[in-house]
Each structure stands twice: as structure tokens, then as C-alpha cells.
């Protein structure tokens, strides 16, 4: 035993075991409860409170939810449900409201009597919101009386107060995120808007309103058509093959199933599956049940009616899902989640429930709508022919590689380590930046693949055309995991744990990044779902004073560094003057400080590129996630699809948010 081990052994005693009382554990390790303390975790606080109101709606006691971003930065969530009970808790002997707000895993979701089903993936509850707020205030209207209690960082500030009589019922929660926990507590309207819209589509019986008191912005979400409206929203910029979505609804063994889907003239499949309002990105038994029923019903109809013939082209499940947009929602009393991100349903009985309901009702629909059935089968036959062409293209590529001494792309600068968990590949815009990256990298674990020009826009191409693109072929060969939808991807063959997109911070760089993300989203979605795709964050500015050099990744960081270099002597007017001159190559040399703005990766020498963008100790990477896949799908179609008008409207609507534009 070494000396250090002896010291550690002596220090590890009964006193080393800490017991964190109340909500201390949440404040000590917040990321364990909300994922992280960045933008995602901050907005998860709102979702936790809203989920409680949604549970009231699922139970049939609430049809109105109001979310308000207040002028002071706090957030209010109010519903017209039953209101949290306030009487003495039979075990804790204190107010039940205080138990709910100040105790982990306390609530009405565990006995399945108060709520048959409930949302909230991790079930951490409103107590975690309370713990991570500087202050929180809850007002309950129940049994004709209004009650209120305020909390400070998870602890009650006073006993429950009675405010008077009321004819209303429900719960109103106001909280202010704690600056000691979150670096940035700025609640973003558009992030809440996406989730609340999604919840309103999934729960057609409720109305959700969102107000921003900071600027007066307001949205109201209520969709009587539910999932049918959701599918039409996702597919709004595509050309539909049928007039209105096919809708299926049923219940078996206490499990309600709801499904809406339609076909468009695109080439990708877009299926969004939910369990208790949770987006199950990794799929699960409910999704398997739907796919099985869809393939069986369409195949049976095709052969029964002579639209497909034995011995000719075989139509696969993939073919039947080309151009499919579907939303599947099931409510499961005891969901069992599995998978890397715990968003994969594992309940075996749910597969047969979904398969039976969808199979029976879809078979009936096809018989009643032969013209629609024919259009779907004809599209599937064309997809089967294209799939066969893609297979031949892949086989040709494999044979070529087998005959070639080097199966990896020649311009790939590979790394020496072969363990994918410790390897990363940079997809770099242009040969110039690629050269700097090759010189600046750590050759042990960093591979560089320079990309020449802009890759094919895969939004407008079938797989066999995609495979003909030289740059895409290089990416596919380098990654080693195949290409296609779920069945075509082999994650076990992936050669790199991190795939990092590194482009210039200008218009062309943004376009190339979008093209690459479109490719991954359409033909390597599993890479995003399993957290393998990242975006590099090269700095925008370099500030130099004497021998001191500092880099800034945005205007806020630039201004902070400038303040330090000037000893705090900087005012808003000077910052405004700097911003006005930002497009210049170098601006505002003052007090011996040189401020430069990088226009491209090629402007950095290898040492600068390593120090700012590639060194794991100092770099910043953005993880590409599937947080809201349906909204992402809609945006990809707007930005990369054939219709120009929606793209123009999107640009006009979002132009005010552009901070750096090179023309």
C-alpha cells in the first residue's frame, strides 16, 4: 500500500459518509436530476411544472394551462386542475403541499389511483424545481379556499397562508431560477414554444397559452384535431399523396393507442413515437408494433389486389415507410424505459396491443379507400426499385474498396489509436483549414477529413443518388458504420466516438454545416440519437495586448475580456461602436489592444486552431441532439426542401436574431 493509499484509508471512516437532508442532494448534484445546468436543464424546470398540469389533464380534471415568462425573469405555470392537497400529510404530519414541494419522490403518481398514467420521464417532480430556484411561490385554489406558501432555495419561508375564498380551482407556481446553479437564467420563448405546441398536439382536450411579459409576445396552442393536426404541421411544406392523414384510435387492456400518418413525395421516413407524452427517440415495442402492422397490412392488400406480384420486386418495410410521416402516441400505466438515454419503451405487451389495433383498423381503411391504397403501394414499389439500385451501388463500392489497397478515403488523415471510444474525426470545410487541422491535431486520437465544396443536398435525393456523391462517399467510408435508415446503420462498425463538424463562421460555413446535419439527420439519424455528432466552436475574436492573447467565442465574452484588459474602463457606447465596426478585418486599436475577427478557419495557424478549437482541455463542443425531432424535421424541410416561399418567410421572421452576417 502506497503512502497516499494509507492516508486515504485512514480518512475513510464513519464520518466520511454524508447524509444530505431534504433537497440538499439536488443542489449538490443538479445535473443528476435535470441532465445539466445549461440551457437544456434550465428549460427542463419549466417542463417539470407543466408536466404536473398535463397529468391533471390526462386524469380529466384540467383543460387550461397558462405559462408566463415574467418581466423579472421568473416563470409562472398555472392550471385549472384540482389543486395540490394542502391538509396535514398522514405520515409527515405537515402540510401535504409542503411535502410535495420539499420532498423528493413525493406525489400522486406512484399508487396509480390518483393518476392512471403520468408524464415526466425521470419523475423528479416539482420539488427539484423548488430546490434549484432562488425562490418559489405556490398558490393553490381548492375546496373554495386560496392557499399560498413561499420557499427559498427549497426550504419553506413560512407556514401555509390562507388568502381567502375563491370559486376557482387549480395550482399556480411561480419560480425564479437560481443564479448559483445556472450560469444563464434567460428563459427562451422559442424553446418553451416548441414543447408546449407538442404537448397541445398530443393532448387535444387542452388549451395551453404562452405569454412573454418581457416583450408582449403571446401564443395559444389548442388543436382539436390532435395528432392529425400534428402530422399536417410537420408535413406542411411537403406535397402530400393523400388529402388528409389516416387516423387510428383504440384501446386494449387499459392501453389507449392513437396514430395519425400520411404519405408525401419525399424519400425519407419520419416517425415520432410517444409514451405518456414522452418522445421515445430510441423507439421501443410500441414502434415495432406499428411498423409490423403497417408492413403486414399493406403487403397483404398489395398481393390480394394484384398490385404486387409473386416473384417480382419484393416490397420491404423500408419501402412502405418511404415518404411516411407518422405520429404514434400510447398511454402506458407502468412504462419500462431502457436504452442509452432511457427513451426506449420495453413493455413487451405494448407491441401486440399496437400491432392488433393498427392492423385491424388499417386493413379496414385500405378496403374502404382503394385509390389511396393504390397510391401508397405504387410509391412503395418505386422505393423498392430505388432500394435495389442503391444496393447495387453499395455492392459496387464494396467491390471497388476490396480491390483497392486503401479502402479509406485517400485524403483522410487517420489517428493511430483504433479504439472508437477514444477516437474522434473532424469533418473540416476546405483544404486550407484541413491542412491547419492536420498540423495542429493530436495524431494519436484525432482524425481529419477535409471536405471540398458543398456536399449534395440529400433532402432532394434518394439513397442511390446520395451514394454517387464523392464527399458523402468519403464520409461513409471513413466512419465505417454504413448508411441508410435504422436497418442500414451498424454502430458496432463506427470507427470514431465523436464526429465533429468544423466549418467557418460565415454564410458558406453555415450552409455546409446545415448540409452535413441534413445528411446525418436523414441517413445516419442513429449517430445523432446516440450522441456521436458534435459541432466545433471556433472563436470569433482574438484580443491582443502586448504578449497576452485571448480568444472570445461571442460578443459577450469579447466584451468581458475587453473590460479586464482595460481595467473595467469600458462603457456601453464604446461597445456599440465596436459592434458597428465588427465586419472589418481588424478594428478599434486602442490602449494597445488589437481586436481581430476571424472570418474563417484558414486564418488560424495550427497552434491557434489547436488551442481554441481542438484541444479537449480548452475547446467547446456543441452536442447535436434529437430534443425535438418533429420540429427539426419541419425546419430541415423548410430550409433544404423544394419550396422557396416557406424558406423566404423563415428568413424574414428570423433575420432579427442574426448577430454576425458576412455579405
The count of helical stretches stands at: 22
Distance between the termini: 66 Å
- CATH topology tier name of the largest domain: Heat Shock Protein 90
Largest sheet: 9 strands, mixed
> What structural class should be given to the helix and strand makeup?
alpha+beta
In CATH, the homologous superfamily of the largest domain goes by the name: Histidine kinase-like ATPase, C-terminal domain
Give the secondary structure arrangement, pairings included.
Blueprint: H1 3-11, H2 24-28, H3 31-34, H4 39-58, E1 64-69, E2 75-79, H5 96-102, H6 126-131, E3 133-142, E4 145-152, E5 155-156, E6 161-165, E7 170-177, H7 189-202, E8 207-212, E9 218-221, H8 227-234, E10 246-252, E11 255-263, E12 270-275, E13 278-279, H9 285-304, H10 317-320, E14 324-330, E15 337-338, E16 344-345, H11 348-368, H12 370-403, E17 424-429, H13 431-440, E18 446-451, H14 463-466, H15 470-479, E19 498-502, H16 507-523, H17 525-529, E20 533-536, E21 541-545, E22 548-552, H18 555-565, H19 572-581, E23 586-590, E24 593-597, H20 606-614, E25 621-623, H21 629-640, H22 644-654
Parallel strand pairs: 1-8, 12-14, 17-18, 17-19, 19-20
Antiparallel strand pairs: 1-2, 2-7, 3-4, 3-7, 4-5, 4-6, 8-9, 10-11, 11-14, 12-13, 15-16, 20-25, 21-22, 21-24, 23-24
Helix pairs in contact: 4-7, 9-11, 9-12, 13-20
